[in-house]
Amino acid sequence: MDTVQISLGVVITLVVVALLFDFMNGFHDAANSIATIVSTRVLKPHQAVVWAAAFNFLAYFLFQLKVASTIGKGTIDPSIVDHYVIFGALIGAIIWNIITWYYGIPSSSSHALVGGLVGAAIAKAGLGGLISAGVLKIIAFIFIAPFLGFVIGGGLMVAVSWICRNIAPRKVDKHFRRFQLLSAAAYSLGHGGNDAQKTVGIIWMLLIAAGMSDPHAAIPGWVVFSCYTAMGLGTMFGGWRIVKTMGNRITKLNQPRGFCANTGGAITLFLATALGIPVSTTHTITGAIAGVGSTRGARRVRWGVAGGIVWAWILTIPCSAAMAAIAWYIGRLVL
User: Is the pLDDT reported for residue 299 higher than 90?
Assistant: First the structure.
């Protein structure tokens, strides 16, 4: 690995771009954390984003950096990483995020970044630049994460319905307004714990390639802190175009359903983060919302909307990879 050609100025520039991506990740995925509590009117939008942002940042103190290690060492061959690969990966992911945000499509920032890494790595070294086991594991969880969210969210809804079957609906809603605050906090913790670490992994890869960090040493603390801060700030600015899709277009939510959807999503994210698997918070909460809605019958879920989201899932990695490959070529000319 060449550690001479990456100047300090280039490193600083790419760290700033990475933090910009992290900010956009929080901005883009804010709807995942707040859609249920906004659509059920537990909190007003500006209150909800502050609530979510605070718990996004608090994840900094709770989770080990297993996801960062997977991104940093488990997706592409570390020996091919240089500033061109990092530039291509980040630009490809950012462009895809902007496109999907503009059209209100709940796509995955996580998979946009993975796709960016894959595209840039292939542009430089062909398929041999990929670590197939790591990439395939991430691809598998495109399907596993929403399925777990679906099953856990639906199961929780069945349990809540049975427990509250003899309680007046007004009283149930009153209690679950409070419970929803807790479930939204838990989901935001899971979002911060999984998503912020992906940018941590990218910056760590860059520092290792530049000879500024030892791959066998701990990840520098300033990298972790700055990524969690950028994620939290991005969430505070919110992604309002996507809130409506996630909140009520998939299925109609009330307080108990919102609680079960957020809790199902949070449990899935905690599990994935503990295993060190980068997953899509968008996929996870979409699956959980659909699972909650399905307990009232399949017709209660707008499968056409969910199907459109699934197409975005399928297209994210190849589209961001293609954009990253083009950005890699451009980076070779301008950096």
Answer: no
